[in-house]
Write a structure and sequence with these properties.
By secondary structure, this protein is of the alpha/beta class. The chain contains eight helices and 15 strands. The strands form five sheets. It has a six-stranded parallel sheet with strand order 5-4-1-13-14-15, with helices on both faces. A three-stranded antiparallel sheet has the order 7-6-12. Strands 2-3 form a two-stranded antiparallel sheet. The structure holds adenosine-5-diphosphoribose.
Length: 279
């Protein structure tokens, strides 16, 4: 997003890429941390098209649980600081946020809708038709952990999204073999999430953005999942100053100008504050 009413020619473009580490202090587990198992499945094994084709109910149980976990989490200081930074009219930066996270915490911190994150791995509060690919707002957790049909509104969607004609109310849906069906084609819906083996979303928008960055910052991502893991190098080659805020060093250390080690909740607000002195 860009700040309205400002001369964009003089503004520096800051592009930020976030990963699971930024949500760790909100209580959401990272992917490669300890305990990445769910009911003896590796998390990766319930987040693939193959898993959905084999056992869609299992996958929906997993995503019902993730919707509930996300709804119970709250944005932390790092999410809030990014949203506040985007909302500051005096800033000399155009800030753009790309996130690999599907947890909706950036959006929930962004009360004035100024940050508008690009969710390259999709989002937990959306589902799509498996036939025509229409995307819906959908914040229902359809199943409990035992697999019983137990629709629960997680309130991950905001008021506008709930009022949208593309919002799915569970009581209006048809079901087949327990699977919720799309209103458009009466075919099963699936979580609007990029699973392992699928292509990330919005790459046509993301690549030019990364290439245009004056400052490129990664926060809380392990740098092992491509294509996001390649953005630091891409930004650096195109002349950006690069920053990494993370609890541990990541494989791209050779193209990082400034490494800030520590927790996102502590370091991100300080880092954004320090940028104001650059203006
Ligand atoms: N503050 C900063 N960094 C943290 C914190 C914290 N509080 N807690 C953990 N980290 C760091 C870890 O050290 C790790 O390097 O965040 C990183 C999280 O890495 P991953 O768990 O691998 O998450 P991420 O990089 O977002 O994964 C990328 O892989 O599983 C897929 O699609 C999924 O979007 C995800 C993608």
């Amino acid at each position: 997003m860009s700040h309205q009413g400002m001369d964009s020619k003089t503004n520096k473009i800051i592009v930020i890429l976030t990963g699971a580490g930024i949500s760790a202090e909100s209580g959401l587990g990272t992917f490669r941390g300890a305990g990445g198992l769910w009911e003896n499945h590796r998390v990766e094994d319930v987040a693939t098209p193959e898993a959905y084709n084999k056992d869609p109910l299992l996958v929906w149980r997993f995503y019902s649980m993730r919707r509930i976990q996300a709804a119970n989490a709250k944005p932390n200081m790092a999410h809030e600081a990014l949203a506040n930074f985007a909302n500051e009219e005096h800033s000399n930066f155009d800030i753009h946020l790309i996130t690999q996270n599907v947890d909706v915490l950036h959006q929930r911190a962004d009360r004035f809708h100024r940050l508008d994150p690009i969710c390259m791995h999709g989002s937990l509060h959306q589902s799509r038709c498996t036939s025509c690919e229409t995307v819906y707002f959908d914040d229902y957790a359809y199943f409990d952990l035992e697999g019983n049909y137990a629709p629960q509104n997680t309130e991950l969607c905001n008021a506008d999204q709930k009022a949208s004609p593309h919002y799915l109310h569970h009581y209006k849906l048809d079901y087949r073999n327990f699977l919720p069906l799309s209103p458009c084609c009466k075919q099963p819906i699936r979580p609007h999430i990029v699973w392992f083996g699928e292509n990330p979303m919005f790459m046509e928008k993301i690549i030019p953005l990364v290439q245009s960055a004056d400052l490129f910052v990664t926060i809380g991502t392990s740098g092992v999942v491509y294509p996001a893991a390649g953005f630091l190098e891409m930004a650096k080659i195109n002349g950006a100053k690069t920053f990494c805020i993370n609890q541990e060093l990541i494989p791209q250390s050779g193209v990082i100008d400034v490494f800030i080690q520590g927790s996102a909740g502590e370091k991100v607000p300080k880092f954004l504050e320090s940028l104001k002195n650059l203006s």
